[in-house]
């Protein structure tokens, strides 16, 4: 049994957290929404803060809206201490920010893996996700059981930040296809404004 922390129980995080519990892991969870946490009442420890999750888990999953939020959470972790901890960022994050955070976490004795999700909430719940993973390959290989508990397949894509870079490329390619769709442009407009603000300025 692994001691796992999970922060961010939105549409994607809920399904992944559910599958980590189903795999027999002991879980502690936190979300800014009490309602989102209460979904896991009786299944996981409901924490009062991100740092309480950090203290509980050896591996901490982050499923957060963007890099700004990830950075705030990780800054709190660094103040508490991350030695011996593995942080897995599932968020759609800025790869440059990810590389900076990875360096800081490693200097403090921990590890960061970026592993963004390619699919939606239904796939997250049904364990049919495809994911990429980036970071320390040895650490990733030591934790393949965790990835296998919530996804159908995963691919190693190299050094820290590369996972989020792949996700960014996937997003841009998808938006480019939408821009070529016939019509009045409403579909494109609705999609392009959903590009996470944290990704602007990457290039």
Short summary:
Helix content is about 45%, strand content about 20%.
How would you describe the overall organization of this protein?
Helix content is 46%, strand content 18%. Strand 1, helix 1 and strand 2 form a beta-alpha-beta unit. The protein has a six-stranded parallel β-sheet with strand order 3-2-1-4-5-6, with helices on both faces. It has a three-stranded mixed β-sheet with strand order 7-8-9. It is globular, with a radius of gyration of 17 Å. With 203 residues, it is of the alpha/beta class. The chain has one domain: Rossmann fold.
**Total number of β-strand segments?**
9
Structural domains: how many: 1
Shape descriptor reads globular
- Counting DSSP H or I runs of 4 or more residues, the number of helices is 10
Radius of gyration, in angstroms, nearest whole number? 17 Å
Instruction: Note poorly predicted spans.
Output: 186-203
Q: Give me the side-by-side strand order of the main sheet.
A: 3-2-1-4-5-6
- The appropriate CATH architecture is 3-Layer(aba) Sandwich
Classify the helix fraction into a percent range. 40-55%
CATH fold-level label: Rossmann fold
CATH class division: Alpha Beta
Mean pLDDT: 86
| End-to-end gap | 42 Å
Spell out the CATH superfamily: NAD(P)-binding Rossmann-like Domain
Give the H and E element order: EHEHEHEHEHEEHEHHEHH
Report the portion of residues in β strands.
15-25%
Give the structural class: alpha/beta
Largest sheet: 6 strands, parallel
């Amino acid at each position: 049994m692994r001691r796992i922390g999970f922060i961010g129980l939105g549409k994607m995080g809920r399904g992944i957290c559910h599958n980590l519990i189903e795999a027999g892991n002991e879980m502690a969870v936190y979300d800014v929404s009490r309602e989102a946490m209460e979904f896991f009442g009786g299944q996981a420890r409901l924490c009062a803060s991100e740092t309480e999750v950090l203290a509980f888990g050896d591996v901490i999953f982050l499923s957060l809206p963007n890099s700004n939020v990830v950075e705030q959470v990780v800054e709190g972790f660094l103040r508490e201490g991350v030695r011996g901890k593995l942080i897995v960022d599932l968020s759609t994050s800025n790869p440059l920010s990810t590389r900076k955070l990875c360096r800081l976490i490693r200097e403090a004795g921990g590890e960061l893996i970026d592993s963004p999700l390619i699919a939606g909430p239904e796939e997250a719940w049904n364990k049919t996700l495809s994911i990429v993973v980036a970071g320390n390959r040895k650490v990733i290989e030591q934790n393949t059981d965790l990835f296998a508990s919530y996804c159908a397949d995963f691919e190693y894509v190299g050094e820290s930040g590369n996972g989020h870079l792949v996700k960014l490329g996937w997003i841009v390619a998808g938006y480019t296809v939408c821009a070529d769709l016939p019509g009045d442009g409403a579909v494109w407009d609705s999609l392009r404004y959903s590009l996470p603000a944290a990704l602007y300025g990457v290039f």
